[in-house]
Specification:
- By secondary structure, this protein is of the alpha/beta class.
- It has two domains: 1-31 and 123-360, no CATH class; 38-115, no CATH class.
- The protein contains 15 helices and 14 strands.
- The chain has a six-stranded parallel beta sheet with strand order 7-2-1-12-13-14.
- The two termini are 21 Å apart.
């Protein structure tokens, strides 16, 4: 099967800009050596990041067929501790060790991503940034499940041409001193209701977002003259972690989303989306089924999915099954009179999008 090119697909939607949903493939396409799970695990090993966990935590990756998937390890630890507790086959100390390792593995993931993240926006060369800008210009809204800063940096560099806004604002809006804008705080915050005019949504949080308890804040360079990575690492050294949704399964992720006013509003925005949608770099694994559910609950009528290789390849069967499940859910909704619009799914060649200019 030969898939359509991105250009062929986007040409069908010149009258109304589709929405874009991006996953880790977006970042991996920029640097395979930085953002894939195996690279993150290797980086964690090089810095002895697992020293904070029990002596067993790192070997769990090995006994799970040498996986590099942090979320798969978290899921296995949770399932194992629950079963062991149910069968009363582990002492209290062992159970506590397993539960502690769950948190350690999640924190090691975010810390390793942060510490090995590119230093600043200059890491994205101008020509790559231009390619990405051209790609993003095709869309009206962007939803991302990525934690890194690549998308944020490209948008900030080209705000005049791709004015996507996350609607984080000054805590003291409109303050002026001697006729010039005055920043009372060194951060910006998200306020209830801002989602209605936002066009950029961090569905799983991001490294530069953090929960201050009473509000969600965003680190900025313009107010501090300190680069974002340095601010993030300084906070991590104080055990202040970013707003970051990771977990063993989609249920746990939804619990975290529902407990955050910001994240829940982002999720609801996706649920209320309509028209056409393009997905790039999304694998739609079972632990991200909540994203699939949001699309099912929306009125999106046409969904374009990026594919590496052929959708019939063995490596793409999980993705294909997820899309079949999505169509089935929408058909059931129509049968129950809860939806009037079916969903059409098409696949396009991921390389043809040429987001970073890496493909001829």
């Amino acid at each position: 099967m030969t898939h359509q090119t991105f250009s062929d697909c986007i040409a069908q939607h010149q009258d109304r800009k589709p929405i874009l949903l991006v996953g880790n493939g977006f970042s991996i396409d920029w640097s395979y050596d930085v953002f894939r799970y195996q690279a993150i695990l290797d980086q964690a090993d090089e810095t002895d990041a697992f020293a904070v966990a029990s002596e067993y935590a790192r070997s769990v990756f090995e006994i799970l067929d040498n996986t590099s998937d942090f979320e798969a390890v978290v899921k296995a630890l949770k399932t194992s501790s629950t079963i062991a507790e149910h069968y009363q086959c582990a002492d209290v100390e062992t159970l506590e060790k397993m539960k502690s390792d769950i948190a350690h593995v999640q924190n090691i993931l975010v810390e390793t991503i942060a510490r090995h993240h590119p230093e600043n926006s200059l890491a994205i060369r101008d020509e790559k940034s231009e390619f990405c800008k051209s790609f993003l210009m095709n869309f009206g809204k962007i939803y991302t499940i990525n934690y890194d800063l690549l998308l944020y940096w490209v948008i900030n560099k080209h705000l005049d041409e791709i004015p996507f806004m996350d609607r984080f604002e000054d805590p003291v809006a409109g303050a002026l001193v001697d006729g010039e804008e005055y920043y009372e705080e060194d951060y910006v915050k998200w306020s209830l209701g801002n989602d209605s005019s936002a066009t950029l949504f961090y569905l799983h949080g991001a490294l530069h977002l953090y929960d201050a308890g009473h509000e969600v804040r965003k680190y900025t360079w313009s107010r501090t003259n300190v680069n974002l990575k340095e601010q993030i690492l300084e906070s991590l050294n104080k055990s202040m972690y970013p707003l970051f949704v990771s977990g063993g399964d989609c249920q746990e992720k939804m619990e975290k989303i529902n407990h955050s006013g910001y994240l829940s509003r982002c999720y609801r925005s996706l649920q209320s989306a309509g028209g056409a949608a393009f997905c790039f770099g999304m694998s739609f694994k079972d632990n991200d089924r909540h994203i699939l559910d949001a699309i099912a609950q929306s009125t999106i009528s046409k969904l374009y999915i990026s594919v590496l290789g052929n959708i019939e390849d063995e490596s793409n069967q999980e993705l294909k099954a997820a899309m079949e499940r999505l169509k089935s859910i929408r058909e059931q909704q129509i049968a129950n009179s809860r939806k009037r619009t079916n969903i059409e799914i098409e696949y396009y060649d991921a390389a043809s999008a040429n987001i970073w200019g890496n493909h001829d």
